[in-house]
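Subject: Subtilisin BL structure
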Amino acid sequence: MGKKRASHTRPQAEPPYQRAAAELRQTASTDTPSLFSRSGSPELETTGRVIMTAVDNDPDAVKRIVRDLKNRAGISNTLTLTAGDESASASDDVEATVLSEFGIVIVDAAPDQIVAAESMVQGASAPAKEYCHVEREYYCYTASDIDELQPSTTGRTRDYWIGYKAGVSRAVDEILLDFNDKGISETTTPSLSDEGYIPLDTTADESMVAGQEFTWGLQATRVSISRLNGQGVKAAVLDTGIDLRHPDFQGRIAASRSFVQGLTVQDGNGHGTHCAGTLGGSSTAGTIRYGVAPAVELYIGKVLNNQGRGREGDVVQGIHWALGQGCRVISVSIQRRVIKCQVPVSIAYETAGANALRRGALVIAAAGNHSNRQSSQYVPVSAPANCPSIVGVGAISQRRRLANFTNRAFCKGGDVDFVAPGVDIYSSDVTPNGYRSRNGTSMATPHVSGIAALIVQQEPGVSGQEIYNQLRANALGAVGGSTRDFGHGLARALV
């Protein structure tokens, strides 16, 4: 299921992750950092755990993995989870967690046992090489940067200025685009002026519809004029949790679970609450609507701690849980930096994304914020968005140009599939007044996830591939830009 631009296709039920596994096996011994030390980047720190994935998701292979872990590494305390299982949880003495539907085993044992587990696939005659892949687990992080705005001293509300800014920005865009048509580029951001832009969409040009104000992101994506609201659709947000006390989420959370040991699902960071708000916030406590699908059923998985850091295996386990809950959309505003294309994807992430597609669901993830485009510094799409079976989302500003930080598609399979609003995004948060603006591909991702939920609402029987195809069909393509940056274009809601 590659993301091949020529055929305009995307995740299909049988992605070629076996080929990726083979490539990873060939380079794992020479092209990865030391297991128990930091690499050059603070965002490339291994956790000390390994993730083992059965080839072809073969149940017999999973049994062999568990057996070999016991015989070769002395790992016998194993916990097996079925998708959606909330009754069992890992304890400190669990050495291996089996995600049965994925054929994945997360190994959390002593260092010498981890080395023994890795040795199962090392060397030409390694016993497990033919039926499993072993990869080192990395820490992952939120994909946003807070952009706090100072309180207004003019007597006007913040919502008023958001609407006012939207109107002024549209007028300025029209003038700038007219200059561009005449061959005159902008002088304030010369490094971005040649990267293309999303054209104005006059069908969604109102900041207020039927007395309801909308954020600029909901206007740009046509949510403001869509008749859909996500009713009856299950959508998961895997992040730092959610503020259970926030008035906009009372009675809205269908289920929640923390995958971070020692922490409840309560959000102590705000990032998860912000992303959940953009996807499905109900705006009951304010006048401005900021949620794409305010009637969606929210499933909240806490996979990052309150500092915004987590383990990739916990993210995979969160996807496993969400699918078991029947979620059709899984939003993952998480990034782990990718620095080399020789090892393009995590087999565990790809397996999770492919399983979601087979179950009629779609995993949507942030493309990452590691680039500095104004300095011509471009970084590949981050993990897990770089997986062929997972949708990657880049960010644009209110001027409909690429955000300075948004990553670019370099590696095979690691595409930007869509872009969405990701600068100065107003949503729910854990601030004293309950709201805040943030920047990041994290903020762009739940826009696309919410729009995917609207597609499922309209056609409940749609497959995961068909959700993707409809996102592509409704996207607004860029003018003068590259698919490496814009993908299929700006994701837009059905109207």
